[in-house]
Amino acid sequence: MKKKLLAVLLFAIMVFSLVACKKEVVDTPSDTPGDTVSTPLVGNKSDEYYMVSFLSGIDYWKTCFEGMEDASKLYGVSAKYTGQTDADVAGQVAVLEQVIAKQPKGIAITCVNSTALEDTINSAIEQGIEVVTFDSDSPTSNRAAYLSTGNEQAGRNAAEFLAPLVNNQGKVAVLYTVGAENSESRVIGFKDWCATNAPGIEFVDVNDAGDTTKATDNMAAALQSNDDIVGVFCVDGVAGTAGPTAVKEAGRDDIKILAFDVDKTVLDMIKSGDVDATVAQGQYNMGYWSMVMLYTKANGLSNANLPGFVDTGVTIVTKDTVDNYYVK
Hints:
By secondary structure, the protein is of the alpha/beta class.
C-alpha cells in the first residue's frame, strides 16, 4: 500500500538522521558470536506508549493505531490504545488522566476539543511524559508536534483529480460543513486550484450542516435548483455518504463524485460505481510518525526540536485500489 511505502521510506531517512545524533546506545547481539552492535533504536518491551482518541470505536482510529503499532515493533516497545467512547470533553480528559497515572514514556492524542485538554497535556509533560497530537490539535498546549492532514493541499489534490473528470468546466457542487476549520481549508485549496488550472468551473456551495440527513436534503435541493451540476466534491465524512445518496435518489448517474475519507460505506460506493473516488487521509502515517517522534523525544535521540506541524498527506482511492483501504 502506498501509505505504508511512504512511511517506510521516510523512516529510513529518519533512522539515518537519528543515528547521527544519538545520545546513548544499547548493545544488541550481532550476527557474529561474541560481538555486539551498538544502536539507540532498540527499546524495552516494558516501555509503554499510548494512543488516546475520542469516539474510540470508529475504524478511522484503527488505521492510525496500526501505524503506531508497526513503528513500536521496530523499536521493541509496547503500543497501547484507549479512548473515550463518545465525543464528551470531560470524558476524554478523564481518560487522559488515567493514562498519565500509568506513567508511560509517551502519549499520542487526538483532541476532541482544541483547548480543553491543554492543562492535562501540560501536566503529562511536566511529569516527564512526551506528548504529540495527531489529527485534532491542542495548539495552546506544550505538545511537541502535531501530525495531521494539510487540508488546503488536500483540497488542491481533490481538484486536480475531479476537474479533468468534468472536462475542467461546468458547475461543481461543494458539499461541506460550513464553519468547520478543516472543511473550510479544503474548500479554499479546491477553489484556488480550480481558479488557476480550471477557471471554467463554477461552484455551488452546499452546507452539509454536520448531519447526514440534513446534508442529503440540502444536496437534493441544490440538484433541483441546478440541474446542470456536473460534479460533486464531498468535502468531509458526512458529505461523503450524503452527497452520493442525494445524487443517486435524483437519478443523476452522469454526475462525477469525489468523496472524502474511507468510511466503509464510501468504499462500497466506489466498488459499486456510485462514487468515482475518495480522498484518503494519511491515518497510518499519523500513527507511525507519532510513535517515531515520541520514541525520539523519550530516548533523547536528537538535540533538534520536532517540527511543529507534519502534513501526513492524502491519497486518491479509486476502484483499482479500494480493496486496500478496508479495515481488516
